[in-house]
Write a structure and sequence with these properties.
The structure holds two protein chains of two kinds. By secondary structure, chain A is mainly α. Helix content of chain A is 67%, strand content 6%. Chains A and B meet through helix 1 and helix 9 of A and helix 2 and helix 3 of B.
């Protein structure tokens, strides 16, 4: 059964091992990308530079300003004396938030009237502004509850106890690093194999392969098999660096994760091979591969929540293997769930692997026509 | 198997509107050195690519080594050897690794032995671990021939095998080819070197995809209207250009 697979596998393996530059890129790329993404992508925006206009200058105003600062979301970088100065600081971009405590703040508090504090946020960056707005609302809510309880001389009637599970510190690396495993595998696996057949064609060696008794299936499988090992090495590298540098938890079964990753890597490599059968040059292969890779990054849920996307793009996302693999990665690494929770994703990835390998084999013609 | 290693009629290949090979009838006796001669674009390479299963013919019927050349190309591929115009082995593999790959792909029972024997026969022992990409044109040609012959094919297809190699290498190469033919291997070769064409037992001259003359080199020259093969070739080329 498939007697020509091993000679092809061996040939590809030797060629891969000898191509030092590509090998270095394949093993070095995950580390570089992980460090870049891990440090650069911080969705939990903290320490927003803030200017304060305290028109009251009383213990009550200082108290409320301190409450804002203590959330960790606001970093007071300047005190200004009037409104134009506050606006100018935000316009210049020196500050991204402004806090205004009016003259009558303590007086209204004492009288039991609604005392206002104005929080101005630069919303040109929605991510930063959202966390500032949420923090401001949180400060107001906590203060309101405290004041109301004090006035009514009884504890607040409702106590919502929020327990953020799986990522209690709401740390971005915990979310990003597992996703990055999938993204790196997608980029490298698809790109490598997208050029596999056209490279043979451009070098003239495809002619020699076609004239041998090697079958189409043996040729496809022999070409992708060595790179499954590369994919596993890449995943291991990202997981180790993610654990050591970013303290990302590895909660669930790694054996299960590697088994499912095998399906995902096979699907990605087969997609690359399919691309390779569509194009005539390595340059075209690169362009088409990027055309496939970009939606994977944008629509799979790696960076942006899929629930926030329009229905059409959510639907497109379902056609991407990475969408399912991200659920597997986050499910196993963060939640520690097993096959009972992930069988749909596993079935989808197995389906992708079978369909894409079949497509690549069917599409490849063992002739020069 | 018939006495003909190759016996096809009406062989035709089109690329879009262009007819690359037009209803060629070819019958190559076993153990013969058969040459295809013709200017660039005359259909020589397309013809042998169809015969060894690299291209699908649009029309024609017949056999190669007793197998239907249109419906059984994979069976034909097991029993023929093919050497392309340019070196088409893997330059990032060593000489030994290239030969080992070929030996394993053809499932030779003693792959190691066959490779060692081929390396010795080709005089490549000292260079066996050298990367193929580092070899000169003559050595590359020697390696390519070694790979094409490793599985002891009954028919050997050579597509302009001596293009770009020095005269001494060409002479040695042809000596090896004639020895093979004496041993019973059928050799199909395309060329536009007249001295090489003269060495063929039988010659087919192609022009614009048509087989216009067939026979010994002397017969072919006369059929085209020249005293020598070179005359015939020039006549053809001028006719093509008009």
């Amino acid at each position: 059964m498939m007697p020509h697979f091993w000679p092809l596998f061996r040939k590809e393996f030797i060629q891969m091992r000898r191509d030092r530059l590509t090998l270095m890129i394949m093993t070095g790329l995950p580390v570089v990308q992980l460090l870049l993404f891990g440090y650069a992508i911080q969705t939990d925006v903290r320490h927003l530079p803030t200017v304060v206009l305290d028109q009251s200058r009383t213990p009550e105003s200082r108290d409320i300003i301190a409450a804002f600062e203590n959330t960790g979301n606001f970093r007071i970088m300047a005190w200004v004396s009037d409104r134009p100065a506050l606006d100018a600081a935000i316009e210049r971009g020196d500050a991204q938030a402004g806090l205004v405590v009016p003259y009558d703040f303590p007086r209204k508090l004492l009288r039991g009237e609604t005392a206002s504090v104005q929080v101005i946020v630069d919303a040109s960056d929605p991510l930063s502004s959202q966390s500032a707005l949420a923090a401001a609302a949180g400060v107001a809510q906590v203060r309101n509850l405290a004041l109301l309880s004090e006035a009514a001389r009884r504890p607040p009637p409702l106590d919502a106890r929020v327990r953020p599970r799986y990522n209690p510190g709401l740390r971005s690396p915990n979310y990003i690093v597992p996703g990055l495993v999938g993204v790196i595998l997608t980029i490298t696996m698809v790109l490598i194999t997208a050029m596999a057949i056209v490279r043979e064609r451009e070098r003239g060696t495809l002619e020699q392969l076609i004239v041998t008794p090697v079958t189409k299936t043996e040729l496809m499988l022999g070409k992708i098999a060595p790179y499954i090992g590369v994919g596993m090495v890449q995943m291991t590298t990202v997981l180790i660096v993610g654990r050591v540098v970013f303290d990302v938890p590895l909660t669930g079964s790694l054996v299960l994760l590697y088994a499912i990753a095998l399906l995902f890597v096979t699907a990605s490599l087969a997609l690359g091979m399919f691309i390779s059968t569509l194009v005539r040059t390595q340059q075209q292969a690169m362009q088409v591969a990027f055309f496939f890779v970009l939606p994977n990054i944008l629509l799979s849920g790696f960076m942006f929540p899929r629930q926030a996307m329009p229905a059409f793009f959510q639907w497109v996302g379902l056609l991407l293997p990475l969408t399912y693999f991200l659920k597997v990665l986050r499910g196993i690494l963060l939640k520690g769930v097993g096959l009972e929770a992930l069988w749909r994703e596993v079935a989808a990835l197995a389906g992708f692997a079978v369909v894409l390998v079949t497509l690549a084999v069917t599409r490849f013609r063992k002739s020069l026509d | 198997m018939s006495a003909f290693a190759i016996d096809v009629r009406g062989l035709t290949k089109r690329f879009g509107k262009k007819i690359a090979v037009n209803k060629a009838d070819i019958a190559v006796p076993e153990g013969e050195v058969w040459g295809f001669l013709g200017p660039n674009g005359s259909g020589k390479t397309t013809t042998i690519r169809m015969l060894c299963g690299l291209l699908h013919a649009d029309a024609g019927e017949g056999t190669c080594l007793g197998y239907n050349f249109r419906t059984e190309p994979e069976r034909i591929k097991r029993e023929v050897g093919y050497m392309t115009q340019r070196f088409s082995f893997w330059e990032d593999l060593s000489i030994r690794e290239n030969l080992e790959f070929v030996a394993r792909v053809y499932e030779l029972s003693d792959a190691r032995g066959a490779v060692a024997q081929a390396i010795g026969r080709l005089g490549l022992t000292a260079r066996q671990n050298q990367l193929a990409g580092d070899l000169s044109g003559g050595w590359k040609q020697r390696l390519a021939l070694g790979c094409a012959l490793l599985h002891r094919p009954d028919v050997l297809f050579l597509d302009e095998p001596t293009a770009g190699v020095d005269p001494a290498a060409r002479r040695n190469f042809w000596r090896a080819i004639l020895e093979l033919a004496q041993g019973g291997t059928t050799v199909i070769v395309t060329t536009h070197y007249m001295d090489e064409a003269e060495r063929c037992g039988r010659l087919a001259m192609l022009s614009n995809g048509r087989l216009i003359a067939l026979g010994t080199p002397h017969d072919v020259a006369q059929q085209v209207g020249g005293r020598t093969l070179e005359d015939a070739y020039v006549i053809l080329q001028e006719r093509d250009e008009q």
